[in-house]
Structures
1.
Amino acid sequence: MTPSSVPSPETTATGAPRPGGAAPLAGRPVSRIGFGAMQLDRLRGDRPAAVALLRRAVELGVDHVDTAQFYGDGLVNGLIREAVRPEDDVLVATKVGATSDRGSLGLRLAQRPEELRKAVEENLAALGVDRLALVNLRRTDTGPGLRAEGDQVVGLDDQLAVMTALRDEGKIGAIGLSSVSLDVLRRAVRAGIACVQNAYSLVAREDEELLTLCVAEGIAWVPYFPLGGAFPGVPKATDEQAVLDAARSLGATPAQIALAWLLRHAPNVLLIPGTADAGHLEANLAAGAITFDDAALAALDAVPSRSAAVPLG
């Protein structure tokens, strides 16, 4: 990377303005709106379109891409390797703790220390790098999704031991956590945690105390399901009247309003909305330019958290 391409708070290494501005992640600035790559699997039949979408994201100022080897059973990591160039200086964050399963769920837990190490090695090989900038440990303490049983019930200390060992070996740059409780984060802080990925949105704010701890500790907050409504019967932020009113007033979509609220809610929030459509990508990134007046912000802040029970399948 040449000195002229070093990322700054204002622009990425490619010179693109940062959607939503910049915030720190794993020791460097990144754009506050990044890209979640999971939905690229929908373009499995059109690899050039998937690569073009990733290139377009980088052109528009994305320099934080979230992935996992189990996305598309390795397909997504291969697309990132093809599309993202070293000179783009994109922080690619991946995750471990689960693996692909050709059964009905398409995913199974892989929580044991040896499985975490294997997953890191698989991500390194698939992405074609010697070091993973950020690896999120996906646990099962909270949020929707699978719950650990049997030999998949693994203590936090055992997991952090292998993650910090991998960091000491230079295979991991920074460690994040996903689907964790407040107690687990409190215990993990001493290991040096770069970010937390939990389900969180305007209508699902049970983790507010956890978010507050992240702000205090300088830990990035990277919410998944940022619009809510990931499962049938679960409330959607885009259905809230305050969101609809703000969208109408500002000439934005309800989804843009819900994303913009997250950016406004806390300074350490980084978004990774995913899509397989170029127009939707541009709309997501445009949410970073939305500002609220005091009345609109107060109305959005007053929306109650409406989370409901979600499947654990």
2.
Amino acid sequence: MRRKSKIKATQLVLLVGALSLWECGSRMGWIDPFFFPAPSSIMGRLAEWFSSSDIWFDLGVTLLETVLSFVFGITGGIVLGIWLGLAPFARAVLNPFIKVFNAIPRVLLAPIYVLWFGLGLTSKVALGLTLVFFVAFFNTLQGVREVNPVVLANARLLKASKGALLRHVYLPSATSWILSSLRVSVGLAVLGAVVAEYLGSSMGLGHMIAQAEGVMDATGVFSGLVLLSAFVVALDAIVDRMEKRLLVWRPNQDNEEAELATR
């Protein structure tokens, strides 16, 4: 606990120090506020936004797009990863096609999705789903392929059915891989939603940032980025809590580091 408190205190000092230097530099004229608005201006803009009910609607839209992208992408990636992990022939046939599609920078698909699905919810979810899907797919595939051969041989020796092997051998092997990738998937789901909103939308955090950029409002852009960062950190904290509950069997990294430090 003492180590954690020391880390948090150091982080707080670094944050306050950086913001203070930024604020002083802006007030003293060392930093041009047109390009880098002062932290006080950013906080004032955020307070102005939250005094209106519109900001909650934009946050809700981005959250909905993120959740749908996350759920559909994770589900599709897990299902396909398990299937190809258990089907060597299908994996060999589809492997070159998967590599080609994976080589495409997914963010560049955003304009295509806007053309296909319009400016509504579907294009945002499609981009986020595409970003999340491959993370879940490759992690699941790797987890299934790295199943312990001794455990698998013992299960087959006991005449375990295919369903029992999937439930008791393959899925537990892939679970830690899948859960460990959730945090990355959340960030990618938000990225997909915001980028698609930025390219074309009438609502959401990406739309707010695009509007501010369109009128050369640096304070609005920075305020949107701060709000977006806080949004991602909040979602990351939820996923982190989920991961700790689901992976209670895994050794605590903080405890291991503390034990090594005392040796």
